[in-house]
Design goal:
GO terms for molecular function: acyltransferase activity, transferring groups other than amino-acyl groups. The protein is an alpha+beta fold. The protein has three domains: 52 residues, no CATH class; 94 residues, no CATH class; 127 residues, Aminopeptidase. Helix content is 20%, strand content 36%. The strands form three sheets. Strands 9-16-10-15-14-13-12-11 form an eight-stranded mixed sheet, sandwiched between helices. The mean pLDDT is 92.
Length: 295
C-alpha cells in the first residue's frame, strides 16, 4: 500500500478509476484532509475528492501555491485591525497595540510598511510608557529577523474562501455563558476591540465558543478572522468546533467577507487539522521577537 505524507500536505495523487471509466487512472492536486481507508483530498477550489486507499497508485508532495508579499501585507493588515488591543497607534506604517498585557497578539507591534532602526526604537519607547515589553509580530517577508536573534511562538496564518453554510447564534459581545466556556483571562474590552470593522461572538450548545472579526485589507478584500475558539472538555470530539466556525463564517459572509483566516501556533496540530478539513491552507508564517534583542 502506498505510504501517504501527513495530513495537511499538498500533494499530487494518482489513483485508479473504476474499470468502466474511459481512462484507467487520473490525478488530483490538493491538500490531504483524511488518510484513512478513504483518502480525502481538498482541491484549491474547495472541492473534496474521495479515493479508496487501495486505489492510490502514486503520491508526491508538491509545493504550496506561491503567495506574493503584497498578499501577506494585506492579510496582516486586516488581521491587525481585527485584534488591535484597547490602545493602539499607527506609527510610520507600524500598528502598535496594547491590551494591558493580555495575549501576545494584542500587545505587539505589526510592521506593515517600513522596518528600520528608528521604528524599532520608537516601538520600544511606546511600550515602555505602558510598562510593557516591546514585542514585534514579525511576518514572513515583511520583517527580516537577523540570524541568531531568538524568536518565540511561531504562528501559521491559514486562509480560505468564505462560503455560507450553516448558522449559529452570534452576539456583538460575549455573554457570561461564552466567558465561562472560554476561561482565558482576557478582558472583555480586549475581546471586543476592532478597528473599522465588526466583531461577533458565536456560541453553540453552551459548550463551544469563538470570535470572528470582519475587517478590510488595503486592497479592498473583506476578511473574516476566526479566533478564541474553545470547546468545553466534556463536549469535545462531537464536531462542535467545526459547526461553530462554519456558522461564524456564514455570519461574516452576510457582512461582506469573501476570505477567511486563522492564526494558529505551529505546534497546535489539532487546530491545524480542524482548519485544514475546512479548506484552510497555509498562507504564511509569523513569529514574535523582542525589540530589544534587535538593537
Amino acid at each position: 500500500m502506498i505510504e501517504l505524507p501527513e495530513i495537511g500536505s499538498r500533494v499530487s495523487l494518482r489513483y485508479r478509476l473504476p474499470t468502466d471509466a474511459e481512462r484507467p487512472m487520473t490525478d488530483v492536486v490538493g491538500h490531504i484532509v483524511d488518510a484513512g481507508a478513504v483518502v480525502r483530498i481538498r482541491t484549491r477550489h474547495g472541492d473534496v475528492v474521495d479515493v479508496d486507499r487501495g486505489d492510490v497508485l502514486a503520491v508526491r508532495v508538491v509545493p504550496e501555491m506561491p503567495v506574493r508579499t503584497g498578499e501577506i501585507r494585506n492579510l496582516e493588515h486586516a488581521a491587525a485591525l481585527g485584534w488591535p488591543g484597547v490602545d493602539h497607534e499607527w506609527h510610520h506604517g507600524w500598528l502598535l497595540r496594547s491590551g494591558r498585557g493580555a495575549t501576545r497578539r494584542a500587545n505587539s507591534a505589526v510592521p506593515l510598511q517600513y522596518s528600520s532602526f528608528a521604528e524599532i526604537t520608537e516601538a520600544i519607547d511606546w511600550y515602555a510608557r505602558r510598562d510593557l515589553p516591546a514585542l514585534i509580530s514579525a511576518p514572513d517577508r515583511l520583517f527580516r529577523i537577523p540570524q541568531g536573534v531568538p524568536t518565540d511562538a511561531e504562528n501559521v496564518f491559514m486562509a480560505t474562501d468564505v462560503a455560507p453554510s450553516r448558522t449559529v447564534p452570534v452576539s456583538p459581545t460575549p455573554e457570561d455563558s461564552w466567558l465561562r466556556v472560554y476561561q482565558r483571562d482576557v478582558p472583555v474590552d480586549v475581546l471586543t476591540a476592532v478597528i473599522d470593522g465588526e466583531v461577533g461572538f458565536g456560541e453553540l450548545d453552551g459548550a463551544a465558543v469563538g470570535r470572528v472579526a470582519v475587517t478590510e485589507a488595503p486592497d479592498g478584500t473583506r476578511w473574516a478572522g476566526l479566533s478564541a475558539v474553545r470547546v468545553d472538555e466534556s463536549a469535545r470530539r462531537r464536531g462542535l468546533a467545526r459547526t461553530l466556525c462554519e456558522g461564524m463564517l456564514t455570519w461574516a459572509h452576510e457582512r461582506g467577507a469573501t476570505r477567511a483566516y486563522v492564526q494558529v501556533v505551529t505546534e497546535n496540530t489539532a487546530a491545524r487539522t480542524l482548519y485544514e478539513s475546512m479548506g484552510f491552507v497555509v498562507h504564511h508564517r509569523s513569529r514574535y521577537v523582542r525589540a530589544q534583542d534587535l538593537l
